[in-house]
Amino acid sequence: MDTFSKSDPVVVLFVQGSGSKEWREFGRTEVIDNTLNPDFVRKFVLDYFFEEKQNLRFDVYNVDSKSCNISKHQDFLGQAFVALGEVIGSQRSRLERPLTGVPGKKCGTILLSAEELSNCRDIVTMQLCANKLDKKDFFGKSDPFLVFYRSNEDGTFTICHKTEVVKNTLNPVWQPFSIPVRALCNGDYDRTVKIDVYDWDRDGSHDFIGEFATSYRELSRAQSQFTVYEVLNPKKKCKKKKYINSGTVTLLSFAVESEFTFVDYIRGGTQLNFTVAIDFTASNGVPSQPTSLHYMSPYQLSAYAMALKAVGEIIQDYDSDKLFPAYGFGAKIPPDGSISHQFPLNSDVENPSCVGIDGVLESYFQSLRTVQLYGPTNFAPVINQVARSAAQMTDGSQYYVLLIVTDGVISDMMQTKEAIVNASALPMSIIIVGVGPAEFDAMEELDGDDVRVSCRGRYAERDIVQFVPFRDYVDRSGNQVLSMARLAKDVLAEIPEQLLSYMKSHDIKPRPTDPQ
């Protein structure tokens, strides 16, 4: 530390690769001279992936020299470890952490805040009509349609939208259409947008009527007034002295809407509620035997424990109370040995929540010692249980994620499909992880990627189920950290889109964040 003054602090950010323990330097802030309360200006721009545990390390140093080698020439003031998801999942995406690492010394705190780069998320909806277009068809009028082109850096044009064809008219009115601003002008409001007018022909040899050029900025003025463009045909213009135009196109309306992202909802206070359901059917094998899928080895986690930890450790960053309801199904439970399909792992019927993922694992291990594995494999009761909670919270403040870990063939397929169809209208997603060597064909049917789940003629409103077999993600060298990272990456990748599809279909907008 400086003897006669305050510190000259700098923060160095290190990132850790997914599934690896190695830290590499990502960047540094500027040095702020002579202060103990620096407010750094330089931002770190990181790619954010909800489905990955993105570990960050912030090291704070007092700079003594201009050397690039931080550790040799600088005083170490402390460090903080944090996952990017923790920062984003915190209230208003602001997180305060104590600095540690200097024995016997209070090192102060570091305040981290995250914001999403907007990257032009606006969507434009516009409507156009035309007047007195050139007649191109011998026996009738024209069948006009418009083609929009975005100009590229090198002066070429890329097609970005085609309107529908309006048959047999020289004064068409096209339907309103929506297009991302990104697609129209790549976020550059002054870039040329070229629009060609064609007469449709059945054989594909459409006749060129004319063209006009504009820009996003010019189009956006139509929010307050109609804009009329002359449609010009360069060949006709050269040939005919009296040529005026080939008609006009009028922009009737132009409206801009922002497309909300997953981060907008999390910043606005939406919490993810995580519930766990574990398969305790007899097909898993006797837990005390090494061949059992539930076997508690002193040396490594079982596939069940790995699936719980992999998914839970990421989701818990977005749940402020870190209380997770955890259930088992398919076992005979004490005291009377009755079969249950939704018994609380912590044995507390009134409050089945466990504290953190470690609490879930602890209750899971405890249950293995007290219940008798039995059957059948019924999913519907626990899906309906979570759906009842979700049905009470449909305002966008909560989104429920149910993780089911199972070893096999489902016994109540009809009831489960019905439960999924009902749940698809609620703020809820279901992740199913299959462990062990069984065939999981039936599970694929529940994952509505190709064919939407249906029951008795009713189809699911949204695709809310993601199924994966754990064996596809196991690292052959036995690296459990890598196996868990791979599993989490795949099963959680669809959650942000599923949350957005619920919010959009129910017209729920993110709550505005307080000014910081």
From TrEMBL:
Gene3D superfamilies: C2 domain (2.60.40.150). One of its GO terms (molecular function) is calcium-dependent phospholipid binding. GO terms for cellular component: plasma membrane. It comes from the Eukaryota. It comes from Chrysemys picta bellii (Western painted turtle). PROSITE patterns: C2, VWFA. Residues 273-474 form the VWFA domain. Residues 1-97, 106-229 form the C2 domain. Belongs to the copine family. GO terms for biological process: cellular response to calcium ion. This is Copine family member 9. Keywords: Calcium, Metal-binding, Repeat. Pfam families: C2, Copine.
